[in-house]
Structure formats: structure tokens, C-alpha cells
Amino acid sequence: MKRPLLAFDEKGIFCEPAGVYLDPWRPVDKALITHGHSDHARWGHRQYITHHHNKPIITSRLGTISAKGISWGEPLLVNNVKFSFHPAGHIPGSSQIRVEHKGEVWVFTGDYKLEDDGISQPFEPIRCHGFITECTFGIPAFNWRPQEEVFHDINTWWRENKEEGNTSVLFAYSLGKAQRLLKHLDQSIGKVYTHGAIENMTSVLRTFMELPPTIPINKDTPKAEIRGNLILAPPSAHGSVWLRKFAPFVTASASGWMAFRGARRRRAVDRGFVLSDHADWSGLLKAVKATECETVVTTHGYTEIFSRYLREELGYNAYTQHTEFEGDQEENASAEDKETA
Q1: Which residues, given as ranges, of the chain have pLDDT below 50?
Q2: Could you say which of 3.60.15.10, 3.30.700.30, 1.10.220.10, 1.20.1440.230 is the CATH number of the domain covering 7-141+277-333?
Q3: For residue 33, what are the contacts with CB-CB under 8 A and spacing of at least 6?
Q4: Reported pTM
């Protein structure tokens, strides 16, 4: 049986003809990285290659590394294998990786979404023979509302809290989700204050994109000035001594998991907004169809359910592969998110 152009081993997704890995989870010599979330961009590789907008993100998170940034669609030849990065729409700087060798084309998605969030380069469908896709939200229960409706709800919630004399605390992952929220918050309502982890990452993103103003919270910030305004904080700040200083406040979480009944209660927040940086069920199906592929490999999320549907209902050669990707990073606070302001 012919070995696929992209195969899986104990270190990650391996392209044997080129001798390179895609988003490896063990240290390797040459790693092509889709985006900056910690389960896809790990420390310890000898060389990192990524989109040039993702380069400052991973260097800020990983420290001193050997990293090269390239543009969308720019060809990268390694041992006669042609690689290129294409927009994934997941977060700023996120890419799909296209791999071509001897007429065979595979695409690895990393994480992605189809809705244009206003800060990320929108998802670009790529024709291929083999498609390696995430399916974090790969069951029919996940069906996202248009983001304009969700942002209207968030801004209404903030306005009502302010009228009642409460500060609004909105929990979001520091890379991607926080900046997406910031972009669409109605700052005519009030000011946006930030936890240190979110401010640090927002500062990195400001080096290549425009974002609305924020006020970082530090030990000298007058607490009385924050009241009635909005605080963006990572999930790890929930219940912390740092947060309790800003009472009275009302809390909320912005996550795709808020679509599950009981998720808000488990997170102990007052309000949940269904907003994800991953594709929903229909988005996943639309992405697969647009590739015109023959083979689909599901890597993380509802892998068995999604691959079975593709195989039994739609006729794809679809199967699952185990990886160490963690799906929705909003569930997994990184060390950076655990910093205090």
C-alpha cells in the first residue's frame, strides 16, 4: 500500500519525502507551524517556519527560537516537495499548509473557521487529494449564529451592567478570541481594561494590525475608574484574588462550548455567549466539500462521529488519526494566561 504524502508518527504529522513535520508535538529539526496556540506551536524544534504574521506570536510565546516567516501562497521547496501557507481564518496569522509532491496534493488545516471575524485573513478553500481536518465541534448540535447577533448581545449585556453600576468581566483566551471581542466591542458604552496576559498578546498583534484601544490593569490602576467598564480577562483569572478586587462585577464567557446546556454553570459564570474560533458542523462539511478531496483524515474533536458521517453518508474515504492537539484552546489556559496583572 502506498504511503500517504502526509503520515502520522510519534512526533507528529510527517512528510517523509521532505523530512519535515507539520505542527509536531515532539522536538524535530524542521517544523512547519499553522498558528500560535500552544498545542500547535511547541517549544524545542530546531527550526520553525510559519506565516510571517505568526512569527512574532510564536517568538513572544516561545522565546529565543530560529523562526522564518513567509507570505500567503509563497512556495517553499524542500527536497522537491512544494509547501505553501494559506489562510485558515482561525486567529490572526493562522494557516492551512498545502503540500504537493509528484502531482499529489494534501492540505493540513490546523484549526480553522469559515466566518470572517474581522481580524484574521479569511479561510481559503484549497483543492486537494487528501484533507487533514480538525473537527473540534464536529457534531450537528453545533450551529453558530451570525457573529453580528452575538456581538449585539454582548454589547447589550455590557450596557445593562453599566446601568446597574456593575463592571462587566468577559473571559476569553488571550490569543485570538480576546482580540476578536475587542474589535467588535462598542466602546461608546465605556472603556476596555485588560488583564496582563491579554494586554501582552494584544501588544504583539498590534505590530501588524490595527485594534481598538485598551487600558492595561496594573497595581496603580484606580479601581473606582474601572467600575461600569469592561474587563477582558483569561479564564484562569476566574475566582482569583486579582479579580475579586473589582467587585461588584458580572461575569461572562465567550466560547463555542456555551452551546452546551450546563456549560455556563460548570464555568460558574453569570452569562455565556456562543462564539467560537472553530468551524461548526455545517462549516466543517462546507470546507470538506470545497476541497473536492477523496480522502479526509480527522485529527481532533468529535473525530469518530464526523469521519463516520463523511464515510457512510457522503462516501468519502474518511478515517481518524490520534494527535496531541487539544481542540478548543479556550479550555486550556496556557502559562501565559496564568500571569497576574
Answers
A1: 329-341
A2: 3.60.15.10
A3: 23, 40, 41, 48, 49, 50, 54, 58
A4: 0.93
